[in-house]
Specification:
Order of helices and strands: EEEHHHHHEEHEHEHEHEHEHHEHEEEEE
Strand order of the largest sheet: 5-6-7-8-9-10-11-12
CATH superfamily of the largest domain: Enolase-like C-terminal domain
Shape: globular
CATH architecture of the largest domain: Alpha-Beta Barrel
Largest sheet: 8 strands, parallel
CATH topology of the largest domain: TIM Barrel
Strand content: 15-25%
Number of helices: 13
CATH class of the largest domain: Alpha Beta
Helix content: 25-40%
Number of strands: 16
Radius of gyration: 19 Å
Distance between the termini: 24 Å
């Protein structure tokens, strides 16, 4: 199989629902930048990859991701896409500091691998299951608005809510209690996005014992793994790392310090399936649970994350709602969404097509 053409297409997609977290102190996000990569082969196959990013985690910009993808596109013509590990390693120096670009080509090469094999990607990655339940995010907002947004997500069929917090610990406790009182049969997770001190994180965890399934990234990644460990040692609820786990090295540091109960793995921030699988192996060896997460991103990227989540027995949690509120996503998904469950199909590769 030989690559004959590579196209890089940057897009800015608006959000149907404005998004606010502890990082968005200046106001909610209303749009996201993404980059699609289209690869054609001389044999007539067409594969797609996608890069998305959270500038608050990686510092990337749409221009930086686009430029890195274009560098990779020029070099990819000399690579054999079925030598997947070699091809991705060859592009790694061109994507230093730009994991979204590496992610885009990593997904495209894995899509080609699935097309060549005639198998869906989740089977190539292990085929442990064919579906997973996902949470849906509720942004930072006052108590009454939080409850209304939670009710709306429940009406859409979702049964796991991830409540964003981190701006005010006491207010977050009130918000969680209000949502649980209004929707007692809904599972709730709290994501502080690194907004708490160690002391506040411990207090929140104790106040919400038996009310939340987990507390995600309670303290800032800059505080280091020992700060996470101090929270975990005194928390009655599971602690997961997100922004602290952005690649294999950081996952190893967390595992070695026994700093959390699990890690969240995002293809966009770690650089694609190859790095994600390394992180998952570290988590499995350390007996940590894995959550497969996302940023705001097209369904194509979610499809790759879903394949990864379905392939590994270590994955316990799904947080793959990044496509739900995107307006104008050109992806035709290769998976199905039913009552909060993401279900794989038997289409080869990611199963997705893109209409650009």
């Amino acid at each position: 199989m030989q690559i004959s053409h590579v196209e890089v297409v940057p897009l800015t997609l608006p959000l149907r629902v404005p998004y606010r977290t502890a990082y968005h102190r200046e106001g909610p996000a209303t749009e996201v930048g993404v980059v699609f990569v289209r690869i054609e082969t001389r044999q007539g196959d067409v594969a797609w990859g996608c890069g998305a990013f959270d500038p608050y985690i990686t510092g990337e910009t749409l221009d930086a991701v686009t430029d890195a993808c274009q560098r990779c596109a020029d070099h990819a013509l000399d690579l054999s896409p079925l030598n997947t590990a070699y091809a991705i390693s060859e592009l790694a120096p061109l994507t230093e500091g730009v994991p979204a670009a590496r992610c885009a080509f990593d997904i495209a090469f894995h899509d080609l691998l699935g097309l060549a094999a005639g198998l869906p990607l989740h089977r190539l990655l292990g085929g442990f299951r064919d579906r997973i339940q996902t949470s849906i995010t509720v942004s930072v907002a006052p108590v009454v608005e939080t409850v209304e947004m939670a009710r709306d997500r429940a009406r859409q069929g979702f049964r796991i809510l991830k409540i964003k917090g981190g701006l005010d610990a006491d207010e977050d406790v009130r918000r969680i209690h209000a949502v649980r009182d209004a929707l007692p049969n809904i599972t709730v997770r709290l994501d502080a996005d690194g907004g708490y001190s160690v002391e506040d994180a411990i207090a929140v965890a104790r106040a919400l014992q038996d009310r939340v399934e987990m507390l995600e990234q309670p303290v800032a990644a800059e505080e280091g793994v020992q700060a996470l460990r101090r929270v975990r040692e005194q928390s009655p609820v599971p602690i997961l790392a997100d922004q602290s786990a952005v690649g294999p090295a950081s996952a190893l540091a967390i595992a070695g310090a026994q700093a959390t109960d699990g890690i969240s793995i995002k293809l966009a921030t770690c650089g694609g399936l190859s790095c994600a699988r390394q992180m998952d192996s570290i988590a499995r060896a350390a007996r940590l649970t894995t959550m497969v997460g996302c940023v705001h991103e097209p369904a194509l990227l979610v499809a790759a994350e879903l394949a990864f989540a379905l392939g590994s027995p270590a994955v316990r949690y799904g947080d793959l709602d990044g496509f739900v509120d995107l307006v104008g996503d050109p992806t035709v998904p290769g998976f199905e969404l039913h009552e909060g469950w993401l279900v794989a199909t038997e289409r080869p590769g990611t199963g997705c097509t893109v209409e650009l």
